[in-house]
Amino acid sequence: MTTPTTSASTTVAQTVWREIRLSWLFIRVDRWTTVFPATCFVVAATVHARLPLGEAAVAAALGAVYFWLFIYEHTLANQLVGVEEDRLNKPFRPLVTGESTVRGARLRLIAVRITFPVYGYCLGVLKWALMWQILSLLQHEYGWGRHWLGRNLYAGIGVIAQLMAAWEIVTALTPDAWRWIVTLTITVTFLMSVQDLRDLHGDRAVRRSTMPLVFGELPTRIFLCAGFAVGPVFIHHFLMAPAGPHWWAVATDVFLCGLSLLLAVRVLLLRGPEHDQRSYRLVEQWYTFALAASIYTLR
């Protein structure tokens, strides 16, 4: 026999599970730029701080929840202002498929905007949580997202908010960690326009001034090709070489540099929405792999 208490518990569990599942549908496309890589940097900080395995696991779990909320706020705000565009570019998103209503997404955004800084305060990274929220407001409410420079600055400065929080969840910032953060911030700021190559039709339809639409698709591809081609020099000098001539550092250096050169070729020669989507996914995975490497290069 089902008791009222059992029924209430089941209802609560179902509601919680539905919200977790729905949040995943909102953030799943962006997991390679936030939850996965930033949690890797949390783990790198635990290794550097020599935390016991149990404490390290707790820190990684707390960090993963923080970055889930981090990107959930972004995706809710981003998708609320881009429903019509998503019907053209990304018809799988929850507001287009009907998995969530606009009103429901707005209520969830309010809840996340309250929960996220409170959680950040509990982890000791409130200033980075607030920095991300300010950036999100600039991007989605005050027009940064409609201009190519604002879009790139949002991504680049967002790396600072993300990785500073990841490290300081565990321990105080070190010069080596700061070197990684600066290098990745500059890289993302200059090369994030690769995401705009795949959405030319939708961006033109909503009159968004992305880099390919402002400067032309071919000049943008040449710029990005050059950026990815010289990327291995910076990867080696600032990220891998300081770890010393260990075999694992050399292997990672070769892998990341090879992926960067592959991207240089792809953005110039392989065009069209499907190819450009794959190129952007490779950029996201490069970012995750780089931060996974920080676990043993920053120890």
From TrEMBL:
GO molecular function, one term: transferase activity, transferring alkyl or aryl (other than methyl) groups
Keyword Isomerase (UniProt): no
TM stretches of this protein: 56-72, 110-132, 153-171, 177-197, 218-240, 246-269
Subcellular location: Membrane
InterPro entries: Prenyltransferase_related, UbiA_prenyltransferase
Topology within the bilayer: Multi-pass membrane protein
Keywords: Membrane, Transferase, Transmembrane, Transmembrane helix
GO cellular component: membrane
Name of protein: 1,4-dihydroxy-2-naphthoate octaprenyltransferase
Gene (UniProt): menA
